[in-house]
Write a structure and sequence with these properties.
With about 160 residues, the protein is mainly beta. Helix content is about 0%, strand content about 50%.
Length: about 160
């Protein structure tokens, strides 16, 4: 059995409160960037069952960078396992489309249970302004045989065990 540490990085940090999402300014910024148009996500649909990876398809303004991060929750309790797991950031295609495969990892704190995810999709323009978030709630598909490799989050860090 090998254990590797995973270093987590994120595009930006967001604060969720009362169902709304705001960009959290960096220490150097003294204002919140003006909101942009949130990306239109056509896949997956809200409530869809997903496997270990999920294809995110949609449209966003040309010239922007689409960013995807995922929150993981215990489906039984609704409590978060981990917030803002990094996914991808990539330039939007010239025709305004994007299609990115992201991990919907099985994360646990010792006990493995059913999980649900909130996939956050947003864009950042050349000036560093973040758009509004499109949040897609999806659920782990219980019929899929998940790989034995799992993320295990402990008080000392995040481990990937296989």
């Amino acid at each position: 059995m090998r254990t590797r540490h995973v270093i987590l990085t994120a595009c930006v940090v967001a604060v969720i409160a009362g169902g709304a999402c705001w960009a959290q300014p960096s220490a150097a910024a003294d204002r919140v960037p003006a909101p942009g148009e949130a990306p239109i996500v056509t896949r997956p649909m809200a409530g869809e069952l997903v496997g270990p990876s999920t294809l995110i398809v949609g449209k966003a303004p040309h010239g922007s960078v689409v960013c995807i991060v995922t929150d993981v929750f215990d489906q039984r309790t609704g409590l978060p396992y981990y917030r803002l797991i990094p996914g991808h950031r990539h330039r939007v295609n010239p025709d305004g489309t994007f299609s990115l495969l992201v991990s919907t990892p099985r994360v646990y704190f010792g006990t493995i249970g059913p999980q649900r995810y909130e996939i956050h999709v947003f864009t950042v323009d050349a000036a560093g302004n973040e758009s509004g978030h499109t949040i897609i709630p999806v659920t782990q598909d219980p019929s899929i045989q998940w790989p034995r490799s799992l993320y295990n989050i402990t008080s000392t860090g995040v481990f990937y065990t296989d």
